[in-house]
């Protein structure tokens, strides 16, 4: 499983990129709005920093509008992936982008039929939202496993991005259940590194080293 970072914050992206594990970035309108910057300018900055896929979401709700916006986004850099919401209009746009060889990430996936439809329409990625399903008492992880099984059984090449990740266990379970990618907020990425026994071990090694006779 590969790691994407789920943020539009350039400092977080730079920090994560220095770790040598970053395969891509996902943004969404809420994450961009938090930054208070021009969307296109920020996408330019991100694509200069990261060579992997950078998902940029369309705002239009009709296929025609999505296609127009998506073409403008895709023109920013070759590694832009156009993020499209899972709707009937979104599927039409995904098909058009697929014909134009523009990569897509179908977002807001909450059931396996949505994922299968997106894959058949030609999506490069689908993003099932684990945390938001867990929030309403559903099992987000079962959805990842189901989509992985369907894609495997029908030899679909669309990659599964485990999204709406809230904690380190989500990351382990997404990897075990067949997600190709987890897109993770910076805070969770930092948590993945930590273990109290690692900290205690470092402290003990250092104190033994400093107290040697
Ligand atoms: C994925 O691409 C989305 O940007 C993101 O994972 C949504 O997460 P949230 O439910 O924490 O907003």
What's the CATH architecture? Alpha-Beta Barrel
The name CATH uses for the topology is TIM Barrel
Please give the number of β-strands: 8
**Most strands sheet:** 8 strands, parallel, barrel
Indicate how many domains the architecture comprises.
1
Shape: globular
**Total number of helical segments?**
11
**Rg, nearest Å:** 19 Å
CATH class: Alpha Beta
Mean pLDDT value: 97
Strand content: 15-25%
Sum this structure up briefly.
With 213 residues, the protein is α/β, with parallel strands linked by helices.
Features of this protein?
single chain, 213 residues, alpha/beta, TIM Barrel, 8-stranded parallel beta barrel, 8 strands, globular, binds erythose-4-phosphate
Question: Would you kindly provide a written description of the structure presented here, covering whatever features stand out?
Answer:
With 213 residues, this protein is α/β, with parallel strands linked by helices. The chain has a single domain (2-210), classed as Alpha-Beta Barrel (TIM Barrel), CATH 3.20.20. The chain has helices at 10-18, 29-35, 39-49, 63-74, 88-99, 112-121, 130-135, 140-153, 168-176, 186-193, 196-210, and strands at residues 2-6, 22-26, 53-57, 80-85, 104-109, 125-128, 159-162, 181-184. Helix 9 links the parallel strand 7 (159-162) and strand 8 (181-184). Helix 1 packs parallel to helix 3, helix 4 crosses helix 5 (88-99) and helix 6 (112-121) packs across helix 8 (140-153). The termini are far apart. The model has no long low-confidence stretch (mean pLDDT 97). Bound molecules: erythose-4-phosphate. This is Probable transaldolase. It catalyses: D-sedoheptulose 7-phosphate + D-glyceraldehyde 3-phosphate = D-erythrose 4-phosphate + beta-D-fructose 6-phosphate. The active site is at residue 83. Pathway: Carbohydrate degradation; pentose phosphate pathway; D-glyceraldehyde 3-phosphate and beta-D-fructose 6-phosphate from D-ribose 5-phosphate and D-xylulose 5-phosphate (non-oxidative stage): step 2/3.
